[in-house]
Every structure is written in C-alpha cells, then in structure tokens.
Specification:
It contains 12 helices and 11 strands. The chain is an alpha/beta fold. The chain has a 9-stranded mixed beta sheet with strand order 3-2-4-7-1-8-11-10-9. A two-stranded antiparallel sheet has the order 5-6. A hairpin with a 4-residue loop joins strand 10 and strand 11. Helix 6 packs across helix 9. The chain starts with 6 loop residues before the first strand and ends with a strand.
C-alpha cells in the first residue's frame, strides 16, 4: 500500500473573463489550463489526472482530448456550483492514495456570449423530468427557489432586505480593488434596493452577473512541490454533502448543506472557523453568502444579517474578508463558479492579489482560507480548507 501523501495546489489560472465574444468554451478551457500549468512551472506530461464538467457529451473525455491529455484518473462529478470543491476533494484523495500524481481541474463557459449571439436564451432550464416535474408547472424558476429561501430566513430570524443588500455592496467594494472584475463602480444599499425586482425579495443587484470565462487549478503530490515555481497551498481538509432534489424535500430553508460539508472540512483540517483569514463563498445571490457564513460557523444561525451589515466582508477593514475578487455578484460568473473560488483562495494565500490582498492584523499574509461552493438550489455543497505553504 502506498503511504498517503500530502497534496498541494501549485498552479492556478484564469482565462480571459468578463466579456469574451470571440472564444469558444474549449478555448477558454485551454487558456486557463495553460496559465495554471505555467503558473506552476510544470509540464503537462506530468498530468495524469483530469477533472471537468459542464461541456460536451462526455466532458472529461472531450476536454482532455482537446487539451492533448491522456489521463489515467478522471472525474466528471457534476453537482452545480459546488462541483469544483467536490472535485478538488476527490482529486486530493486520489493523489494522497497514490492513484494520481498531478490532477488538473478545468472549467470554461461562454454563458454571456451565447446569450448575446442568440445561441441560447437567458433562462436556465434543468428540464422537467424526475422530481422537477412537480415544481416546473408552477413556474418555480431557479432564482425563485433562492428567493423563497431568503424570504423564509427573513421571516424566521428577522433578517432585513438591507442586510442582504449589504452583501452586494461589500462584494462590489472588493471588486473595485480588482482590475479584472467585470463591475467595479461602488454601489450603495439604496441602489441595490431601488433596482428592478427579479424575484421577490431580490432585485437585480442581489443576483450574480452573467459573464464568460474559465479557470483551472493544478494539484500535485508533495514530492513534486520542489519542482514548482510557486509556493504550495496545501489541501488541509474537505467535506461534501447533498441535501434535496426538490424544494418540498428540503427540511429547513434556512440551513444549507454547507452546515455538513463545512463541519467535515474543518474537522478534517483540524482548524476552527475562527482561525480562517479569508473566505471564498459561492454567491449567485446575496442570501447564499449570508446563510453559508452561518452554516460554516462564522456566526450563529439567524445572526447572519447582523454579521454582514457591519462591513466585515470587505478586504479593506473587514474582520473576515469574503469573496475578495468581487465574487459572482461583481467579478465574474460564467456558470458553475466554484473553481474561481479556489483560484482566488490560492492567490490570496500566496500574496499575489495586489490592491485586494488580505493582510492579517500583524501585517502578514493570510495563513488559512476556505472555499465553499453551493450547487443547484442549495442541493449540494463542497467545502475545502487550504493552508499556506
């Protein structure tokens, strides 16, 4: 039996993001992959593991072929926005067990360009078969599901629409520090509240942007770290959880599956939420940030509103900088954004984020980060705890 090895993220890269009208999804995959490998300083011949989802009929087969890879370990887990945190956990386990030496995770999407060119509509449909058949006839869209959950939290705990709006305001403040963010102009709570209603209680600025873009990360076994040009970011612990298929099967709209994935990740990493320096949290909607903060243990259940309204999520002056690149609410959101959370967490721990770089109270770089993705309509969650090398 091969002894379990430590696993590190040694490469992280983004493709061109935001408004990219002249590239295919495959091209964005390739661009992000090349940049992640160049970041690590490793040759693609080392890569024997590959993970991809969301493109093509046989995602990892087609994309790997396009990239010129012939992996002996693959993963095509597809659980929405949490896909990439779950894949990172699977990849780390495979490397630790000796089933792979280097695993490349890649994603790319032209979600915005496709709508602009008329290749698809702006409405995302998950179909009408299976459990969904009992909700689709009532017009229960994806955003309506999140909006209904947010309203339940407001009724249950007195969370206000202003507190939810504060999440969007702070995400934009962080995006203002990120030259690659899609939207950087500061916004106010009043501007969030006065926008057009998309699904009550969400107005437009409570919802993520639609962008193009790709991301990639490279994980390797510890013995390859010395060959890399970057400092390693160690995978300390991970957890995953799936909850419900239909809203009617969700026991409590105010508790997301991050309550389980987060607990597992922190336990396996041997750290407490209070020790985390920076958090990258899936934010397709403002409520996702708030409830995930609660469920990861950064504040008690029902106290998320009070936690987010005091500016705690800001890079500048925040107690817990969250979504330091601006998140899906302002930076970019090309679909399943979970891989972008990992890229930003890695860059923060390596001190590569320029004006938006998080510093601890003593001026040193962050030591611990958490990336937590959410998929579907709070159906799945993957959480990964990362530590600086």
């Amino acid at each position: 039996m091969v002894a379990r090895r430590k696993v590190a993220v040694v490469g992280a890269g983004l493709s061109d993001c935001g408004r990219v009208d002249d590239a295919t999804p495959y091209a964005l995959h390739a661009q992000a992959a090349r940049r992640a490998l160049a970041d690590a300083g490793l040759d693609r011949t080392l890569v024997d593991g590959f993970a991809s989802a969301g493109l093509g009929t046989l995602a990892p087969v087609e994309v790997a072929a396009y990239l010129g890879l012939r992996p002996t370990w693959v993963d095509s887990t597809s659980v929405g926005g949490s896909t990439w945190e779950v894949m990172a956990a699977h990849a780390a386990d495979a490397i630790a067990a000796g089933h792979a030496r280097a695993v490349l995770l890649v994603y790319g999407s032209t979600a915005r360009a496709d709508v602009r060119a008329g290749r698809r509509t702006g409405t995302l449909s998950f179909g009408t078969r299976g459990p969904l058949q009992f909700e689709v006839p009532y017009g229960h869209t994806l955003i309506a599901k999140y909006a209904m959950a947010a309203r339940r939290h407001m009724i249950e705990y007195g969370t206000t629409i202003e507190q939810l709006a504060a999440v969007a305001v702070q995400a934009r403040a962080n995006a203002a520090l990120n030259p690659e963010a899609m939207f950087r102009t500061p916004i106010t709570v009043d501007e969030v509240l006065s926008g057009p209603v998309i699904a009550d209680p969400f107005t437009k600025l409570h919802c993520c942007v639609r962008s193009d873009g790709g991301a990639a990360v490279l994980l390797v076994a510890e013995e390859y770290v010395r060959d890399c040009r970057t400092s390693p970011v160690w995978v300390l612990g991970s957890g995953e959880c799936v909850s419900h298929a239909a809203m009617s099967e969700w026991p409590d709209f105010t508790v997301s599956p991050a309550a389980v994935s987060g607990r597992l990740a922190f336990e396996r990493a041997g750290v407490r939420p209070s020790e985390i320096d920076v958090a990258e949290i899936y934010d397709a909607f403002t409520y996702m940030t708030l409830v995930t903060l609660e469920d990861l243990g950064f504040c008690a259940k029902g106290e998320g509103g009070a936690f987010v309204e005091k500016g705690r999520l800001r890079v500048e002056g925040g107690e817990l900088p969250v979504n330091t690149d601006g998140g899906g609410l302002s930076a970019q959101h090309p679909g399943m954004r979970g891989l972008f959370l990992l890229v930003e967490a890695v860059r923060q721990l390596r001190g590569e984020c320029g004006q938006r770089q998080v510093r601890r109270g003593d001026g040193t770089l962050p030591r611990l980060a958490v990336a937590s993705g959410t998929g579907g309509w709070f159906c799945s969650s993957g959480t990964v705890v990362l530590g600086a090398g």
